[in-house]
Amino acid sequence: MRTLPDQEIVVVGGGLVGAAIAWGLARKGVRPLVLDGEDLAHRASRANFALVWVQGKGIGAPHYARWTIGSAKLWPSFAEELEEASGVDVALRQRGGFTFALSEGEMTMWTEEVQSVAAALGEDAPEHVLLDHAGTARMVPAIGRDVVGSIYSPLDGDVNSLRLFRALHAGMVNLGACYQARSDVTEILPKDGGFLLKGAWGEVFAGRVVLAAGNGNTRLAPMVGLSAPTVQSKGQILVTEKCEPFFPYTSTTIRQADEGGVMIGDSQEADTLSIATSQDISTVLAGRAARTFPQLSQVNVLRSWAGFRVKTPDGLPIYETSPIHPGACVVMCHSGVTLAANHALLVADAIAGRKATLADDRFSGRRFHVPQH
Ligand SMILES: Cc1cc2nc3c(=O)[nH]c(=O)nc-3n(C[C@H](O)[C@H](O)[C@H](O)COP(=O)(O)OP(=O)(O)OC[C@H]3O[C@@H](n4cnc5c(N)ncnc54)[C@H](O)[C@@H]3O)c2cc1C
User: Residue 17 Cα, ligand 1 centroid: separation in angstroms?
Assistant: First the structure.
């Protein structure tokens, strides 16, 4: 069995979360080894819709709303620093985002959601504007007659998600991190104040370990006294051929990428383990998109894919240092694009500084512990 040189810190998982943490650690002079899975592993990071999205986030959880808003505000400086480190422009656009309603019922439901977050946040609430059809059409002339109204919030935006992935990987290596693919960690043994990590690739001793393995955290976390429960959530996305720019903003279901193609998404399926795309879901997504922007009915769909979200039972992230083995922590979340700035600049700093609390303590996985009677 191959034994790698001892490491100060190992990050398990090289998706958007692990890569953001590794980049953030490297920029603080802590050079992690990143052990990642197989090339064909299911990664939420290669399947997402690429939004940096604030609107409606944090219903009943104002700490999550604040965490999300904070990350959206950090994004411009994060993107700039990442480009310096990697040479990759992630095409961040924060011109604002729309939620388009295709019925009065949808408009009422989403308005209530946004207003409940705003009421809980008070002065900290992100700006949002409720628009009827005419108000929406003034800002987005291409919308169809079926759009009864929309909610616009100026802080929302998007990036080129695959370029973000590439930038984090190139950037972390440029700053001194070491990345090793095809290195699934199957066992973590707390030992001598550190951790022995093992897999078919060999083993390595690390002083500290960061679990950032997406849905893989569920299996790994108990090995270091943590828990990371997840629920199934599959999303599907369609991508069209490139077309002339028609929508300079972004939205929860339709966005035109910087390269011209239109992404249409994203669905929510809870009860399936199959990664295959579904024709029925594609039909619903395409139908809603064509009602929102009628010109899309003339555009060819080139690709579709599905991916599994990294979703905890309450949909909120988990940031937690192990109470039993303080050198280990877990970081996982559903909105890894939106929160990438927080992960790279705040959570990584907390890990580098050996802080016991990585973010608001309410994000600890202890919230899922059921008392045993
Ligand atoms: C359809 C869809 C749309 C989305 N849209 C958005 C959006 O618009 N905005 C947004 O902010 N977020 C969005 N997300 C969520 C976002 O993509 C995820 O939050 C993010 O990618 C999670 O990254 P991750 O690194 O935790 O997980 P992953 O990308 O799944 O990466 C986990 C990594 O860990 C590795 N791994 C797993 N187990 C092990 C192990 N035992 N040893 C070593 N390595 C291991 C895997 O190989 C993988 O590389 C979306 C997700 C989906 C599926």
Answer: 7
